[in-house]
Amino acid sequence: MARGIALDDDVVETYRNEGVVVLRGVLSIDEIESLRRGIDAVVAAPSPRAKVASQSDDPGFFLEDFCTWREHEEFDSFIRNTALVPLAAQLMGSRTVRLYHDHVLVKEAGTRQRTPWHQDQPYYDVEGVQNVSFWIPVDAVPLESSLESVAGTHRGPWLMPRTFRDQQAKWFPEGSLAELPDIEADRSAHEIRAWDLEVGDVIAFHMLTVHGAAGSARRRRVFSLRLLGDDMVHAPRHWVCSPDFRAVIPAESDMRRAGEALDGEWFPLLLG
User: Fold this and answer.
1) CA nearest 202: which of 32, 2, 26?
2) pLDDT tens track for 152-171
3) ∠ CA(170), CA(172), CA(173), 5° rounding?
4) What single-letter DSSP state applies at residue 129?
5) CATH top class, domain 9-251
6) Which residues, 6 or more positions from 233, have their beta carbon under 8 angstroms from its beta carbon?
7) Contact between 102 and 223 (Cβ < 8 Å)
8) Does the reported pTM lie above 0.90?
9) d(Cα 138, Cα 140) in Å, to the nearest integer?
10) Cα–Cα distance between 20 and 204 in angstroms, integer?
């Protein structure tokens, strides 16, 4: 795809109204092949930030890794050159686009572990509304294994972030945020958006959009890219966020004060 391509107005409007949209065929086979190589390298040698997100009795295996773009040239090149960057600016209505972090998610064939319903932004150390995450599968994904999102939840409120396995509130104090509704108890009560995806398709969603995903009968490799727009600023927390940037940023000078834009080599400006 040419870097200067523009999204249709209705796609941008859908993103602003619903907090999630599918972008069909926006990546080339060469880009996907490069991401596959990077993901497979992560699986072969995960970083110290990697987490096993599946239970020990799961017949499959769910691996997550964070902030690996500086260790894998395939990711670095993709992030700096992909047409998703100007598309992010359109979706966010932002003059600038800055990298927040990358996230590798691999569910091996037969993984039962569900990615629980959640919002991303309460786990982070940023505030603002101009943001977008791209969920980029490098394998075709059937509907039953695809990312699911609840339309409109990006408008808030912020919901209590809990640990996925034991449901602890390790971030905001108990009672300080509204609780996530039991979406699985009555799925018909929520406007759930999900799509089957071919290689080259991408889902774009807001960091406050409630989302989750089922297990996967086949191997499902995903590279996710979190991007920040004009109004996104650092919001220091009194707890360890996810991802834990203290584990990847060696110098205090690379972190910002409250209300400042993130910058430095870990948060490169990609547009603007």
Assistant:
1) 26
2) 999 999 999 988 877 777 78
3) 90
4) S
5) mainly beta
6) 126, 127, 128, 256, 258, 259, 260, 261, 262
7) yes
8) yes
9) 7
10) 6
